[in-house]
Design brief:
Length: 367
Amino acid sequence: MNIGYDGYFISDAKNKGGWALTQLELIKQLVAIDTKDEFFVFTDEGGLKLLPNANNIHPLIVNRRGDNFLSRIGAIKNAFENYRVRLDIYIETVEIAPKFPKNVKIFDFVHDFSQGKVEPFLSISRIKGLIYNKYKISTIKRSSVIFCNSNFTKSQLLPLKSDVKVVVYPHGVDYIFKNKKTNPVNLDIDLPQKFFLYIGRINARHKNFKLLLNAFKTYNKKHPEIKLVIATAANYAVEPDSNVILLKSLPIEDIAYLYSKALAFIFPSTYEGFGIPIIEAQCMGCPLILNDIPVFREVSGDCALFFNNTIDDLIIKMEEILNDSVRQKLIECGLKNCERYSWEKTAEIIYNVIHGGKGSDNLSSPP
C-alpha cells in the first residue's frame, strides 16, 4: 500500500520542536517495522535531510510558507497534486488533514480538545481556537481510524463520532529521556541544591502557573533554602524574586538535566490532552506533584502526589515530597510506569491497524 504521512514540521527537529520530534521519531519506527508498504512523507527541504535512509520512504517536498494549520494543509494538498501520487492511507499527525479524494483513508492523530475552550472569553485567541476546532472536527468525521494519546482524549472524541475506530496509543518521548542523558549543554548558572521545577508556558490560563507561583511564595517563607526553577520557551515577564529562577529556551539536554536534579516536577495545569512532561520527568527519576485531573492520573499511572487545585493543598504536597521515603517510592513507581510509553510501541499499533489487526484500545496496565 501507499501511505502518506504528514512530516511538515520534521525540519524543526534540530531545534527539538514538539511536533517535529513526534513526526520524525514515529516515521523512523514505522519504516523500520513496516517493510510491506511505501511511505510518502510530506516535508520540506530541511526535513528531507533528517528522514531515515530507508528504501520504502519517499519524500514529497512541500513549500513551507507558514506554520498555521491552513498554510500546512494547503502546502500538503499542493504537493499531493503536483506529485500525482496515489495514496491508500494518509496519516495525519497534527489533527487537521487536507481534503483528499474519498478513496484515501485518513488515519488521524488527535491530541486534545482545548482549542476554543481554555482561552479568555471573546479573545482573538479563543476565536482562532474555535475555527481550528471546526476544521479538526471535520477531519475527525471523515477519518477511518483515530489515534488518541489518552483515554481522556478518547472520551471527549466519542460523542463527535461514535462509529469510528478509535485507538489509544502510547505516546513516546525523546531518546534523551529514555537514555537518561544528563549532560547540560547550555546552562550558565549554578543550580541551587534544592529546587522545585516547572516546565512549560506561563501565560496560558489553563497552565495554572499563578497558583503554583503563589503557593511557592507562601511555602518559601518556611523553606527559604528551596528555590523554584521555571523553564519556558518565550520571553515572559516574572516578578523579580531571588528564589524564583527563570530559564528561557533551553535545549532538551538541559531540560533532562533539570528533571534529574529537581526535588519534584510540579504540573498545576487544569487541562491537558496528555502531559508529556510527566513521562519525561519519570524517565529521569524525578518525582511528580500533579493537579488532580483525570488525564494526569491516567498518564502518570498514579505515581505522583496529587493536589486538589488549591494553594493550601499544593503546599501540603510540597511538604510531603521532602520525605525521602515518599520521593523514593514515587521515583521507583515512575520509572516502571514510563516503560509503557514509546514510539516503537505506537508504530507496532499503527502497523497492526494498517494490516487488519485490532491494534490496542488501551495502554498496558500502570504499575
